[in-house]
Amino acid sequence: MTDEIQGPRHVVDARSESFPEALKTIPRPPQKLYVIGALESLVPGLAVIGARKATPYGLSCARRFARLAAEKGVLIISGGARGCDSEAHWAALKAESPTVVFLGGGCDVVYPPEHAQLFQRIVDSGGAIVSERSWATPPKPFMFRERNRLIAGLADAVLIVEAGLPSGTFSTADEALDAGKEVLVVPGAITSEASYGSNRLLFQGASPIIDDESFEDALFRSCGVLKRLKGNGDDAPEEDPIVRCVLAQPIDSEALYGLAVEEYGADGARAKLMEVLVEAEARGVIARQGDGRWGPVVRS
Predict the structure, then answer these.
(1) Which of 9, 39, 157, 172 gives a 20 to 30 Å CA spacing to 132?
(2) Does an H or E element contain 36, and which?
């Protein structure tokens, strides 16, 4: 199946200024990248990956966390596969944020074939379809493991939303760890075979994502200061009511959330709260203390 995806085409040599810096230092860096779409979208972001035969739980987690990250301007990176990968890409598109697909085979061999519409939407929306294989290279099983190092390499962190045992997802986690990237994992029920691999990664030391707040914290830690949520108006100044409370005395996250619900309303209170805290922390006004509470920065 050739010429399925329409859009700008590029062959980017590793010596080119357009070649992503993050991919120059990974193990076995690619010598060329074949790209359909926007070269400027090839920036560090969050990789969201998981099972192809995902449960409704895994699919919903992929959608949820990809959307939260995309709404803050974080690029979503994945492999375009069935299941969790495609859900993450669709979530980014719905958030009107670019997303990048790394394919195992060439970009002109759409795989899986039913994702032709998804891939076209990604290109049309300012994202990109990328491979280290030449345009018409048919995908082979070993190529998917090889491309996983590219997914992990471009990402600042890798989020695994669901993985059984055995799982190809582990190769991406291994590549991320080898590159010094943080691996984030959504826990699953210990009785669910679809979560055996995810829970094993947590046992081995991956960072657990147990709710929106822990995810927001991980994004700030791995991806730096985030863009504001769309449509929230002016920047959060020091005199924001929530920041004023923190400046007055240290306060824990649960109490802050209660204040945020009162101040902003229940709808979107947690996202708005994290946004205000992240911006105030970035400006050096407040900080997370050793006991987990938020408090004023004490200057010497």
Answers:
(1) 157
(2) strand 32-37
Residues 111 and 249 in one domain: no
Radius of gyration of the chain from its Cα atoms, rounded to whole angstroms = 20
Instruction: Please report, for residues 7, 78, 129, 183, 287, the alpha-carbon distance to residue 126 in angstroms, rounded to integers and kept in the order given.
Output: 10, 15, 10, 27, 36
Q: What CATH number should be reported for the domain holding residue 251?
A: 1.10.10
228 domain residue, yes or no: no
pLDDT of residue 229: 36
Q: Does any domain span residue 211?
A: yes
Same domain, yes or no: 166 and 82: yes
CA torsion, ordered 190, 196, 201, 202, to nearest 10 deg: -10
Residue at 206 is within a domain: yes
Whether 34 is in a domain gets the answer yes
Predicted TM-score (pTM) of the model is 0.74
The pLDDT score that the predictor gives to residue 32 is 96
What average pLDDT does range 71-89 have in this prediction? 94
274 band by pLDDT with thresholds 50, 70 and 90: confident
What confidence score (pLDDT) does residue 202 get?
93
Cα of first residue to Cα of last residue in the chain, in angstroms, is 65
Q: Identify the DSSP state of 108.
A: T
